[in-house]
Structure formats: C-alpha cells, structure tokens
C-alpha cells in the first residue's frame, strides 16, 4: 500500500451540495425514529450515564445497584467503567440543552452518523477515481443498515466508527502533504476513538500497519511513534477515573472486556468458528443482496489494484481487508453488529469504485449509465433501510401511542409515586427521571439481577415479557396499556410483586 497523490487545489461545490443534501435527508429519515422509539439495544446501560455526567461529572447507572462481583456492572450505581466513558461526556452537553431521556442520549450518535457520511465522501475523493463515485459512496452509506442502526441508538458504535474514519482521512492527508500535524491529529482521533470503545483497536492496528509500509526506516519509526504516543496520551484522560475507582474498574472492565478476549486452545478451529459466526451476523446485518454487492466491489477493487496497477485501488482494497479481518478477530463471538460501521464505510467505497468503472465503459453515455447503476444500487438498499419506521412515526407524530416518552408519562400518572418499581429497559430511564425509586428490570447474572432486590411493582414491556420476568418476580398482572401486536406502538403491562425477593449483598 503506497501513499496517494494530493488532490488538486480548488473546490467544486456541486458535490458538496449533493453531500449536504444527503445529510439533510439522513436527518429527516432518522430523527423521527430517535424521538419516538423506546429504549433498546443496551441503551439502559449507555444512556443514563451521560445524564449523570451532566449533573455530577461521573458516569453512573443509578437504577442498577448490583453487588454481585461476578457481574460486569458491579457497583454501576457508583460509577460505570465497564467500557471507556467518552460517549457519556459527549452526551452530557446535550442533557444541558434538552430534556433527559433516550432521545437526547442518542443525539451524539446521530451527529456522528452525519459526520461519517461527510468523511466517507472526503475519503472517497482521495481514494476513488472521480467525485461522483465518492458522492455515491456517501449516499449508499447513509441508506445502509451499516449506518442506520448505530446512528439511532445511544451506544458508542457510531462515535467510535466516526473517529476511525477521521483518523483514516488525516493519515491520507499526511501522506499526500507530508505535514506532521495531520498525523498528530490522526493520533488524537485514535486516542479519542479508544475512549469510546475498545473496538477502536481495529483501525488503530490497521493504520499503524499502513504508516509502516512506506518511507525510510527513520520515517516509519517516527510515524508509528507519533501515532502511538499521541493516542496513548489521549487515553490517559481516563486515568483519573481508573485511579479513583480502582477496584470497580478492575471488576467491571476486566470482566466485560479482557475476559472475553482470552484465547482458546485450538486457534485454527476457533478462527474458523469465529469467521463462520461473524459471517452469519454480517449476512443478517447487511442483507444477502447488499452483502453480495459489497463483496463484488471489494473483489473488483482488488483486481484493479493488481491488474491495472492502480495504487489507489490497491490501497483501498488492502485497508478494507485489514479492517474486516481485524474486526472479525476483535469481535469473536460477540453478537454486536454496530461496529461494522467502520469497515462497512470502506466496503461502500469499493462498491462505488465498481459502479464508476462500469459506467466509464459506456464512453459518451457514461453519465447516464452511472445514474442508472446508482439508482439500482439505492433501490437495493431500500428494504431494511428503516424508511417504513420513519413513515409510521411521521404519520403518527402527535399520537402518544407512538411516542415513548409521552406514553410512559401518561401511564405513570395512573401509578403511585411511592414504592419500588422494577422497569423494563425500554422505559427505565423515563421512570428514573420521574423521581420514583427505580430498579432495572433485567434478571441476567452477568449484568443485573433484579430478583435480588425487593420491589413493589413491575413495569414490563416486550423485553421483560419475552424473558418471563413477571414469573421470576412472582408478579400479578394489574393493568396493560398499548397494542402488543403493533411493533411501532408502545406497550407495557403493570404487575404487582406479591412476594418480594430477598436482598442479596
């Protein structure tokens, strides 16, 4: 993989207008979902620490007073250190401006998604053969499930991926202009990315390998030393929290992250099993059609790099393969799919390169061929792109049955203020903000066991009902609200806990 040439000076504003339009459409498509949906996908753990940071400077999960040392979230009500805390500090300013709740906690992910779209275009301008392919890559990425899911939830996935794309762009600028400030800025992005999630190691290793592949030994040594030194300096920002809560950090972080990455005995067998597992997850996450198209783009880009001796294609293919392989190795058997947002962006660039190269074979009609192929590509992404959910929420914008915060407020008006409430993850943040004594309605030993605590009421929704939490708490049904058969509407069942479980220290 070699350094790329600099982009000529001068700005053509037409592609930027297209990219701005893509970002606006992305905002219109995703904001209704962010504002209306109840909590999901671990948001019970990732949302409220941002609010506690805004109030007291410490990330905590107040409704999870776990005291089982085998849990990843032991003493999470004191401080949450199971993962690096940067997401919560990005969330905090939004809680100063907007009401506390899941929608506010999701805003950093939404903005990171928009920034990632712009970064895909900027990277495409430097690595693809023409501007229109770069714009297409940004458009496809904005519509894909690779960007859709991580951009609408209060998780660190999208923020982590965004810093990876920013670091990649800065390394490209450093190689083209030989200005060390870009490499220093890339190191900052690597470090801050690592403070969002350990998955940042994927692009840290990827870019570290890349900068070591060109230049003299002295240049390589200085480059990798700069990247490592600056990124490690940024990671030290976490040190005060670690030292203040040493034992909690050791139990939470070591249990949640390091214990999951221990190697097994048969490395080859394990590697094959992990590849199969992550391949199945990718098939489910991308969809069969889109996954096939992306793989075709990757193969074509690699072929162009070898057969046509195109250094840009060779570099893009190499970086993409590295990102995919490193992510699979990092994830192992973990079912999280959101971190595909980083290698997925590179795969979109590869596919856009394929579309552009095919269109160019039509000569004078290449423009119309590119438009036709682009429309077909966009059409292939529409199923599963989340636009149906957007349409539903726009159509029912003021209907409380489709608006989680309004819905749960109306339900809470019918319930007593006193007592201890075990609450489904979908609504636990809102109930905590109502001033009631709240416990997280989860009964999983490695996370939180609500059955170890006495409670008076259970507010159960789809997660709690699916996992039979009412039965585990000896709870008796009292009332239900909403439509259980409509996946877009809110639904809860209220239970009274007749036999409180004993408190366990």
Could you walk me through the main structural features you see in this protein, from its secondary elements to its overall organization?
61% of the residues lie in helices and 6% in strands. The protein is globular, with a radius of gyration of 24 Å. The C terminus is likely disordered. This is 4-amino-4-deoxy-L-arabinose transferase. It holds the Pfam family PMT_2.
Mean pLDDT, nearest integer? 90
Spans of at least 5 consecutive residues whose pLDDT stays below 50 are 262-268, 501-505
Strand order of the largest sheet: 2-1-5-7-6
Indicate the radius of gyration in whole angstroms.
Answer: 24 Å
Number of helices: 23
Share of β-strand residues: 5-15%
The amount of helix comes to 55-70%
> What is the 3D form?
globular
Query: Which secondary-structure class do the elements indicate?
Result: alpha/beta
Number of discrete domains: 2
**Whole-Å distance between the termini?**
56 Å
Number of DSSP strand runs? 7
Largest sheet: 5 strands, mixed
**What is the helix/strand order?**
HHHHHHHHHHHHHHHHHHHHEHEEEEHHEE
InterPro entries: LipidA_mod_glycosyltrf_83, RgtA/B/C-like
Membrane topology: Multi-pass membrane protein
GO cellular component, one term: plasma membrane
Organism: Planctomicrobium piriforme
């Amino acid at each position: 993989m070699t350094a790329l040439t600099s982009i000529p000076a001068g700005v053509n504003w037409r592609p930027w207008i297209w990219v701005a339009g893509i970002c606006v459409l992305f905002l219109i498509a995703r904001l209704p979902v962010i504002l209306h949906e109840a909590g999901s996908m671990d948001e019970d753990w990732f949302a409220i620490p941002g609010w506690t940071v805004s109030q007291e400077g410490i990330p905590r999960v107040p409704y999870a007073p776990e005291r089982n040392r085998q849990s990843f979230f032991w003493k999470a009500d004191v401080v949450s250190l199971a993962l690096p805390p940067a997401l919560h500090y990005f969330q905090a300013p939004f809680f100063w401006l907007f009401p506390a709740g899941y929608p506010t906690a999701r805003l950093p992910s939404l903005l990171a998604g928009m920034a990632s779209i712009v970064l895909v275009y900027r990277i495409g301008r430097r690595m693809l053969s023409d501007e229109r392919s770069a714009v297409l890559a940004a458009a496809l990425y904005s519509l894909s499930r690779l960007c859709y899911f991580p951009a609408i939830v209060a998780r660190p996935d999208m923020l982590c991926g965004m810093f990876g794309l920013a670091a990649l762009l800065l390394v490209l600028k450093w190689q083209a202009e030989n200005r060390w400030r870009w490499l220093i800025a890339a190191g900052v992005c690597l470090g801050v990315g690592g403070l969002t999630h350990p998955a940042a190691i994927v692009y840290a290793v990827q870019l570290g390998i890349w900068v070591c592949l060109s230049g003299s030994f002295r240049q390589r040594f200085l480059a990798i030393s700069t990247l490592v030194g600056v990124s490690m300096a940024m990671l030290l920002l976490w040190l005060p929290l670690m030292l203040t809560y040493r034992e909690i950090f050791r139990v939470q972080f070591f249990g949640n992250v390091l214990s999951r990455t221990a190697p097994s005995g048969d490395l080859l067998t394990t590697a094959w099993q992990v590849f199969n597992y992550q391949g199945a997850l990718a098939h489910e996450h991308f969809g069969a059609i889109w996954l096939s198209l992306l793989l075709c783009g990757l193969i074509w880009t690699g072929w162009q790099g070898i057969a046509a001796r195109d250094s840009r294609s060779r570099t893009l293919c190499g970086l993409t393969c590295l990102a995919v392989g490193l992510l699979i190795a990092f994830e192992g058997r973990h079912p999280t799919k959101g971190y595909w947002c980083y290698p997925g962006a590179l795969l979109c660039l590869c596919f856009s390169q394929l579309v552009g190269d095919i269109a160019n074979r039509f000569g004078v009609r290449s423009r119309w061929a590119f438009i036709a192929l682009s429309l077909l590509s966009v059409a292939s992404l529409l199923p599963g792109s989340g636009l149906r959910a957007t349409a539903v929420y726009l159509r029912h914008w003021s209907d409380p049955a489709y608006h989680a915060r309004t819905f749960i407020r109306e339900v809470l008006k019918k319930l007593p203020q006193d007592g201890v409430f075990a609450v489904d993850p979908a609504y636990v943040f809102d109930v905590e903000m109502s001033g009631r004594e709240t416990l997280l309605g989860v009964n999983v030993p490695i996370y939180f066991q609500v059955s170890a605590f006495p409670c008076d009421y259970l507010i159960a929704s789809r997660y709690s009902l699916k996992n039979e939490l009412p039965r585990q708490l000896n709870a008796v049904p009292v009332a239900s609200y909403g439509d259980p058969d409509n996946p877009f509407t809110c639904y809860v069942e209220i239970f009274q806990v007749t036999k409180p479980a004993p408190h366990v220290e």
